[in-house]
Each structure stands twice: as C-alpha cells, then as structure tokens.
Amino acid sequence: MNTNQFELIGLAGRLLAWYDREKRDLPWRRSKDPYRIWLAEIMLQQTQVSAVIPYFDRFLQTWPRLSDLARAHDDQVMKAWEGLGYYSRARNLLAAARLIETRFSGVMPSEEKELLSLPGIGEYTAAAIAAIAFGRPVVAVDGNLVRVFARLTATDWDPSNLSQRRQVRRVAESLLPPGRPGDYNEALMDLGATICLPRRPGCSACPLTELCLAFHQDQVDRYPAKPRRRPRPVENKIVLVLIWQKKFHVSRRPAQGLLAGLYQFDWLSPSVLREGQAADLALAQMYPGAKISWLGEKTHDFTHRQWQLGGYAVQVEARPELKTGIWVDRRTLAALPFPAALTGYRERVLLL
C-alpha cells in the first residue's frame, strides 16, 4: 500500500462541502437517536436504501422506542421484517434490544467494544453507530468505502478481505475532520452509493477527482480488486400447499440455519418421484380425488445458493396424516411470517 503517491490532504474539506450541498434526505438522518441509527444500519446490510425506507418507517410506527421493540413478540417482528430478507438480522435485532434492556439498562452503548458484544453488530455497524450517533472518531468501512479509497489511492484492495478493510479504515481515519465524524462517515457512504459506483462511476460529479489517482491514470474501472466468485449451486424444489376444509398446512423451520424460525408450506420430496415422472401425476397418486392446481414457477436467489421453485396447491377431502406442522385458517396464514421465496405462493392460495 502506498497512499503517498497522491496527496489526500484536503479530502475531508472537499467531501464535506459536497455533502452539505448534496446529502440524501433519509429518514434515519433526521435524528441522532441511537435506536433509529442502529435500526437503519441493520436494515441497510446488503439491502438497497429504497427497499429499507418503508420498512424503517413501519417499524418505528409499531415500535417507536427501543424498549417497545425489546418487549415485542418474536413472530410480530419476523412478520414486520417479511420481504426484507436476511432474516437473521431481525432475530439478532430483537435479541440485541432485549440485551440492551437487561445489560445496559435500556441505553444503547456508545463504545465500539460494547456495541460489538450485541448480536448482529459487526465491525462496520459498530463503527457506524459510534460515529453517527455518538460522534466517536471512527470510520465504518464496507465494500463501498473500500472501492472509494482503492480508487483514490490506486490500490488493489479487496472488499472481501477483512485485513485489507482494516487497512482502508486506518487510512480513512487518518483523514477524519475534527468535530464531524458522523457527517464524514455519511458523506463517504453517499459518495460510494451515488457517485463512485462499481460500474459507470460518475467521476464528472465527484468532489474528489482532483485527488483520485485512479482517475488521473484513467484506470477507475480497474479498482478495487475483484475477487473470483464461485457459482451458486442451484436447488430445484417443489412447494406443496395442502388445503383441507379451507385450512392450510404449514410448519415452522428450525431455529437455526437458513430462514430460521419462519413458516413454510410442505415440500414434495424428490424421493417420491419415479424417474421421469411428472410431479402432478405423483401428487394425484398420493392424494386420490384431490383437486390439484399449478401455482407457477419462481426463482429465488440467496447469497450462496439459488432456489428454482415450482408450486402446487392440493385441496384434499380427507385430512392427511402428517407428523409435524399445523393447520391454519386464511387470516392466520396471512399473518404468519413467511420467507420472501414463498410469499408469492401464499398470495396465490389465499385467492383460491
């Protein structure tokens, strides 16, 4: 790393002057309430700002204070999170709220070390809360910030490399302006989110082009280092919605693992299909006399895998003998927290 190839002194002044003119009007920026800032940072993990805003607003309408969230029922919180994805964030959010109530007397801790002791808070989120809510002189470094400083210094930093993210943090913190650590962090966030984009960056509108080594070398697209991505495995699954006397069979996923604690329909096991046998024919044999409806196909992407789904509704006359799960009516089905991968099927069967 050689950040002396190009002078970065003056970066903070240029950046903050631009931020004062161009900063985004976001609901969590209208208050320095640590609860709101924490909630926003958790929701923004791997999620676009435009998707977060309505969830953030609804959460605050339901649980305006941290103490309200700490007393919330698990299923209520999971339902409110439905569709936002990465559901472990919601479980950790609720666990952390309860821990703050018991360990910290209901007051959000202000130091990074204490923040890191809370479920769901890593280095980036702890630094963001400490800087924005409490004015601590630290910088929250994510992939966007690595990209900004990799281009500024023409350094092959890899956003996925923790050691290199910490190198970026040291550089960014060496340039912190006195008195405005929160604004400095949010200005860097805005720059990475709106100007210094991964593809087709808006260099003509960037306040830091005069300081940017990659720009002057005409190599902006080269940075940051691009890690080799492994292809995501594809899993083919058949969703089975069993309906008996206007009730729907659902079960709850295990408390640990993918989509933990959310509700789901049944799945048609591939083991019941003979080679080349169509799923609808297998279902007709499994449930004689049932009305079988095709619910369509759907693809759902997770971070490390992809589900390719097909769905069937099976309306049976006799109640099937099932070892697990419960039968619920329409109102209950609509209220249960489901993963986004299955909410489309739920909407379809609620119309049957």
Main beta-sheet annotation: 7 strands, mixed
Kindly report the name of the CATH homologous superfamily of the largest domain. Answer: Hypothetical protein, domain 2
SS-based class: alpha+beta
Number of domains: 2
Instruction: Work out the strand percent.
Output: 5-15%
Contiguous runs where pLDDT drops below 50 for at least 5 residues:
1-6
What's the pLDDT, averaged over the residues?
92
Rg is 25 Å
Q: Report how far the terminal alpha carbons are from each other.
A: 62 Å
Give the SSE order as H and E letters: HHHHHHHHHHHHEEEEHEEEHH
Which CATH top level class of the largest domain fits?
Mainly Alpha
Give the number of DSSP strands: 7
**What is the CATH architecture assignment of the largest domain?**
Orthogonal Bundle
Detailed description of the structure:
This protein has about 350 residues and is of the alpha+beta class. The chain folds into 2 domains: about 5-220, Hypothetical protein, domain 2 (Endonuclease III, domain 1), CATH 1.10.340; about 235-350, Alpha-Beta Complex (Nucleoside Triphosphate Pyrophosphohydrolase), CATH 3.90.79.10. The chain has 15 helices and 7 strands. The protein has helices spanning about 10-20, 35-45, 50-60, 65-70, 75-80, 90-105, 110-115, 125-135, 145-155, 160-175, 180-195, 215, 280-285, 330-335, 340-350; strands at about 235-245, 245-250, 265, 265, 290-300, 305-315, 325-330. Strands 1, 2, 3, 4, 5, 6 and 7 form a 7-stranded mixed beta sheet that branches. A hairpin with a 2-residue loop joins strand 1 and strand 2. Helix 2 packs across helix 3 (about 50-60) and helix 9 (about 145-155) crosses helix 10 (about 160-175).
